[in-house]
Amino acid sequence: MASGVTVADTCKTTFEEIKKDKKYRYVIYFIKDEKQIDVETLGERNATYQDFLQDVQHGGSGECRYGVFDFEYTHQCQGTSEGSKKQKLFLMSWCPDTAKVKKKMLYSSSFDALKKSLVGVAKYIQATDLAEASEESVESQLRAMDRT
Asked: Which of 48, 112, 121, 142 lies in the 20 to 30 Å Cα band around 73?
């Protein structure tokens, strides 16, 4: 079900700056006035995953957010001793259990519009608590996509 929420052009522009130019580490999006998805916060290139988690929760326990993060890790192919550096973009929908039902419904029904406008995301992650959003959980989901 589509919510009628639109995606601001700045969302796509900022995403491209992360994907192609490596200008930022992450971006946090929010739904403004229940009408449009817009940029809320940008994470500098040297920002950590912990910074991302803090910013995605910045609105408080009753607020949902979306976030794109440029995740880096080392992958070792079978039969080699060398590890190769990998980077994958993921899009997270953060809707804590403590958020109001109406807000959760708005964010979940608007997620598709954002997915369609951000071309090049490797993985979509839906998180309702810190265990699902943890660095370990995200890394294991991204590694599961690698060929061994």
From this structure: 112
Q: Which residues on neighbouring strands pair with residue 83, listed in sequence order?
A: 76
Flag whether pLDDT at 147 surpasses 80. no
Residues 90 and 104: their CA atoms lie apart, in Å, by 20
Global model pTM greater than 0.90: yes
15, 116 contact by CB (below 8 A): no
- The arithmetic mean of pLDDT across residues 22-41, rounded, is 97
Q: Are 34 and 5 in contact (CB under 8 A)?
A: yes
Helix (H, G, I), strand (E, B) or coil at 111: helix
- Residue 43 Cα distances to 6, 15, 34, 35, 49, angstroms: 23, 12, 24, 24, 10
Which residues, including other chains, have CB under 8 Å from residue 140's CB and lie 6 or more apart?
none
Given the structure tokens 């998180």, which residue do they identify?
Answer: 127
Dihedral pair phi/psi, residue 41, rounded to 5°: -140, 145
Residue 102: count other Cβ atoms within 10 Å of its Cβ.
9
**Residue 123 vs residues 24, 36, 98, 99: alpha-carbon distances, Å:** 18, 23, 25, 24
